[in-house]
Amino acid sequence: MKAEGHPEYHMITVKMTDGTEFQTRSTWGNEGETLALDIDPTSHPAWTGGTKQIQEGGRVAAFNKRFGGLSLKK
Fold it and tell me: What is the full DSSP assignment across 29-51?
């Protein structure tokens, strides 16, 4: 097997958005570098359970808010 066929696998430090750090092996960067994350499980809505659109409602909720009091009953 060719030696240059695989990327170098080494230890890096990953820094989360809340400041916590952990070490892992990766092909990213060089040995000992720090990868600072912009989005991670502590800050992304997919993991934290909230999104602005769901909290404010969608198009149907806006329609019901505007026209919810109307009825066709005589």
Answer: SSTT-EEE-SS-TTT-HHHHT--
Amino acid type, 58: G
Taking only Cα atoms into account, the Rg of the chain, rounded to an integer number of angstroms, comes to 24
Label residue 10 exposed, middle or buried (CB < 10 Å: 0-12, 13-18, 19+). middle
CB neighbour list of residue 48: distance below 8 Å, 6 or more residues apart:
42
Which tens digits make up the pLDDT trace of 32-67?
999 999 888 888 777 777 655 555 677 888 888 888
Q: How far apart are CA 15 and CA 35, in angstroms?
A: 6
pTM over 0.70: no
Tell me which residue of 38, 36, 46 sits closest to 13, measured CA to CA. 36
**Pairwise CA distance, residues 14 & 23, whole Å:** 6
